[in-house]
Design brief:
- The complex is a heterodimer of chains A (813) and B (100).
- By secondary structure, chain A is α/β, with parallel strands linked by helices.
- Chain A has a 5-stranded parallel β-sheet with strand order 5-2-1-9-21. A 5-stranded parallel β-sheet of chain A has the order 11-18-12-13-14.
- Chain B is mainly beta and 100 residues long.
- Helix content of chain B is 0%, strand content 41%.
- Chain B has a 4-stranded antiparallel β-sheet, with no helix packed on it.
- Chain B is globular, with a radius of gyration of 12 Å.
- Classes of the chains: A alpha/beta (813), B mainly beta (100).
- Chains A and B meet through helix 12 and strand 41 of A and strand 2, strand 5 and strand 6 of B.
Chain lengths: 813, 100
């Protein structure tokens, strides 16, 4: 025989808990008692009902039919006055006893009515014209009465009072809000936010009086006004009391349960020392907290249902981190956590724009969000709630917590995105696809990226993909240890890897695998990164295994979508000659090159060249490689500078050519694109290059690093201003070497420089704070000295079939 | 049984492509000395797999980095599998068994 479950209270908490129990197939005979004569309605919507934007039918959650359908006996309009814990019965006012095996108390809360003289009439309840704002009946009576009256005073400037004031405006012409604290919603908002909220509310036509304690309700037969402590009188004919709520815990208390501010419960929502009595909702005190919002109540109901049905007997409620987003009297308000700093090192950011009614503040402790308040503009609320709830890492640029600064889409909150919104624009992957992959059980960011290909194109969406995975996994995202490794196949971050390589003198990629991976396993996707690193570290001593190279580096050309290659000869600083142009034109004609194109790096690209034609084309061109295919130093873009331009203040072409001549083809963790521009007009786009040099008046040069104008756009940070071209050359080499030694594989300077911080980069590279400048200079000089033009590798192939086509047409017989 | 050429035609750790009948076949020379043969064209966007990088388990297409298992031909992502061909080395000769 199923156990008898009795639920005292038919409000949102009681009904929700029963729904959760039914959803888990709980086997109980359920009886519910509610002292209101209705089914179950959404109390939060009473303010909409008052404002006339919702009708009564719209606010019911479960009508009477629902109880019948689910075999629940509902006693509405019957108040339980006593629980006999020993005989396990509950008693109604008329003495009727109902037995239980398990009891859930969900009696909720009631309006707190402060002891103000004149509020009550002896023996007759409230004075004529005075209302509380708590139940459907309260609301109905208020509407009926307000229609025929003119001026209302609402006592209490919290959430409920504001809602009441706004709602009353639909029924009468004057509404005054009287609040005893210094600012509105003082429990949730800091003072500045309360003041902004006040002016927004005043603009809606509600008068607000703060710091005003009500001392008396005036009027003989009916209300005529309220009197304040400072002696002022506000005339009115309706008074609404909205001064907070108190837990309905009297029944529990008289029945011998432990009650403080609410019924004291443990983590299973069990009343203290009572194995079979539970309590849930606003009547409850858990770990010293009482809650007056709906979200914690849902969490409690779910835990209680898990526990009581045996679905998960150990389910535990740990308290709620309360984060709310509300429309208060027509104004958007969101609040979570603490409102003011509590410790000396708490970081606080505040933004106020009173004219627009906007207030924003966030409180950060140890890099985590511990509180936030938004009034008037809550666009960032979804992101903040996530960060608050899950303790996510916060953006370096703290302003991004409050504003959308533009830039890459990584700042959009996953919760706000539509399922069909495209996240990875390279591979056409939507948010829905990523979320489905996570729901399918893949809970690491890299795992999801591998499966969906999201983030596997240009890579700019990786941050957003990570956020969506985190969101979809509901905080259960698994740490991917590989995220910190230099390459996926060797379990070490770069500094540790470099130490191990030096210590064991590993000069080839296969030696690294043999020595440093578990089981000595090779990993195809790690080879290219390791080859680059070893070449940088060992120079001429590097044991160059050709299979460790990516195809581009095996044949010194960039592979195209059809398996053909592009050929870009070096054209230093983008300066060419008629003779060079003629030769290129002849070669293009002779080899019937399908497309000849000017590149963004100021060079000429011959596209669509079959692999087996590459050596002949290089021979015919007889020009050095432009390295348009490697993770390496690419080009130096220049403007005509002082030589011809009437604005130029420095010889940018000469300097650009000098830089390219010196650092051509140097390999690194990512591409290095440079520019030198002859004046701050920036025609060569030096502000958005990995390293950009800008001539300024007075014979000086500014050096910018960490710029980008690809999928990610970033203006470089000023590294130094120097007085000569020689210094530019030295600092360029030193910065590039510092980048080569410290950046992660495929980490471009636009990510590297902000990660290290420009101040630190400047300290090392310019001020030599670490005393390694000479080493960096020597290392880059060694790489420069070891440079060989790869297009000389055309007379004798480096490996058998180096240039043989990989999509053969000649059929073997 | 078709003789494709010498094993020494394929550098250690690389692949080379061969046309046999109407089929294009990529043969890989793994660093443990063994060989594998699979269809040469990536079913994703037609990439030349013989230009891909390999280890003892997979070949990675050079165009979009789709990885395929060298023994089964299955991709690790959502791309259809490659055809696997039986290939062996006999006296330093690469021998392709009959086409499937």
């Amino acid at each position: 025989m199923p156990q008898r479950l009795v639920v005292v209270g038919n409000g949102m908490a009681g009904a929700r808990t029963v729904e959760e129990i039914l959803a888990r197939g709980g086997d109980f005979t359920i009886t519910m008692f509610g002292d209101e004569p209705y089914g179950n309605y959404n109390r939060i919507m009473l303010s909409n009902l008052l404002a006339g934007v919702e009708d009564e039918a719209g606010i019911f959650l479960n009508d009477l039919g629902w109880y019948a359908d689910n075999g629940i006996t509902l006693h509405s309009g019957q108040r339980i006055v006593r629980v006999d814990r020993f005989s396990r019965h509950v008693y109604t006012e008329d003495g009727t006893a109902t037995p239980y095996d398990k009891l859930i108390i969900a009696t909720g809360s009631r309006a707190h009515v402060p002891p103000i003289p004149g509020l009550h009439r002896p023996g007759r309840g409230y004075h004529q014209g005075v209302f509380a704002f708590r139940t459907l009946d309260d609301t109905r009576n208020m509407i009926r009465y307000a229609r025929d009256h003119e001026r209302a005073v609402v006592i209490g400037g919290g959430l409920l009072g504001l809602e009441a004031a706004r709602g009353l405006q639909s029924h009468l012409s004057h509404v005054t809000l009287v609040h005893s604290a210094g600012h509105l919603m003082n429990a949730q908002l800091p003072a500045a936010a309360g003041q902004i909220l006040q002016s927004s509310v005043e603009q809606l036509g509600i008068e607000v009086v703060t710091g005003a304690r009500t001392t008396e309700i005036l009027g003989k037969n009916a209300v005529t006004g309220v009197k304040l402590a400072d002696g002022r009188t506000i005339p009115c004919d309706v008074v609404v009391v909205a001064a907070g709520i108190r837990a309905n815990s009297e029944v529990a208390e008289t029945s011998g349960l432990v009650v403080e501010r609410g019924i004291v419960v443990d983590d299973q929502m069990r009343a203290q020392d009572e194995p079979d009595i539970y309590a849930v909702g606003e009547c409850v005190q858990h770990r010293g907290e009482t809650y007056g919002l709906v979200a914690p109540l849902w969490e409690q109901a779910s835990v209680l249902a898990d526990h009581i049905t045996g679905r998960n007997p150990d389910a535990a409620y740990h308290g709620s981190r309360v984060a709310t987003k509300l429309k208060v009297a027509g104004v958007d308000v969101a609040a979570m956590g603490i409102t003011e700093p509590q410790r000396d090192d708490d970081e606080v950011l505040t933004f106020t724009e009173p004219r627009k009614g906007v207030f924003k503040s966030v409180v950060i402790r140890d890099g985590r969000l511990v509180g936030a308040t938004l009034v008037g503009d809550v666009r960032k609320v979804a992101f903040l709630m996530q960060a608050f709830d899950r303790g996510l890492a916060l953006p370096e640029e703290r302003a991004e917590l409050m504003f959308d600064l533009g830039g890459p889409p990584a700042e959009v909150s996953p919760a706000e995105m539509a399922d069909d919104e495209q996240v990875c624009n390279c591979n056409g992957v939507t948010k829905g696809t990523i979320a489905a992959c996570v729901q399918g059980g893949c809970k690491t960011v890299n795992g999801v990226m591998d499966k969906t290909k999201a983030g596997k194109g240009c890579g700019t969406c990786k941050g957003l993909v990570a956020q969506i995975v985190e969101w979809a996994a509901g905080g259960e995202v698994e740490e991917d240890p590989a995220a910190s490794w230099y390459v996926p196949g060797v379990p070490m971050p770069k500094p540790e890897l470099m130490r191990a390589i030096r210590e064991h003198r590993l000069t080839s990629v296969s030696q690294v695998f043999a020595k440093l991976t578990p089981g000595g396993d090779e990993d195809a996707k790690s080879k290219m990164g390791l080859a680059s690193l070893l070449k940088m570290m060992w120079g001429a001593e590097y044991d160059d295994e050709r299979d460790a190279r990516f195809i581009n580096d095996r044949v010194h050309a960039n592979i195209q979508r059809d398996g053909t290659f592009s050929v870009v000869p070096q054209m230093k600083g983008g300066v060419t000659t008629p003779a060079q142009l003629k030769r290129i034109a002849e070669v293009a004609e002779r080899h019937q090159v399908p497309m000849v194109k000017l590149t963004g790096g100021q060079r000429i690209d011959l596209l669509g060249v079959p692999k087996d034609r590459l050596p002949q084309i290089w021979a015919d061109l007889d020009m050095p490689s432009g390295w348009a295919y490697g993770k390496s130093f690419r080009t130096v873009k220049t403007c005509v500078g002082s030589e011809f331009c009437r604005f130029g203040v420095g010889d940018s072409t000469a300097l650009g050519i000098a830089i390219e001549e010196r650092y051509q083809g140097i390999e690194g963790p990512g591409k290095m694109k440079l520019a030198v521009t002859g004046c701050p007009r920036n025609c060569a786009e030096a502000y958005v290059k990995d390293l950009g040099v800008v001539a300024i008046d007075g014979g000086k040069w500014e050096i910018y690093v960490g710029g980008a104008a690809g999928a990610h756009v970033r203006k470089g940070d000023l590294l130094a201003t120097v007085g000569s071209a020689d210094e530019v050359l030295t600092l360029t080499g030193r910065f590039l070497q510092y980048y080569r030694e410290n950046a992660n594989w495929l980490e471009r300077t636009y990510a590297f420089v902000p990660r290290i911080g420009i101040d630190r980069v400047r300290a090392v590279v310019v001020e030599d704070s670490d005393g390694i400048a000479a080493d960096l200079d020597a290392a880059i000089a060694a790489s420069v000295a070891a440079y060989v033009d790869p297009w000389q590798e055309r007379k004798v192939p480096a490996t058998p079939g180096q240039f043989r086509t990989s999509l053969p047409l000649t059929v073997l017989s | 049984m078709i003789r494709l050429g010498d094993l020494s035609d394929i550098p250690l750790g690389e692949g080379r492509a061969y046309a046999v009948g109407d089929q294009q076949i990529a043969v890989f020379h793994l660093r443990d000395g063994s060989v594998r043969a699979l269809s040469a064209v990536c079913p994703h966007r037609g990439g030349p797999l013989a230009d891909g990088q390999i280890d003892l388990r997979v070949v990675v297409c050079p165009l979009h980095l789709t990885a395929f298992d060298l023994s089964t031909g299955c991709s690790t992502g959502d791309v259809p599998p490659l055809t696997v061909y039986a290939v062996r080395v006999d006296d330093d000769q690469l021998i392709l068994e009959d086409l499937p």
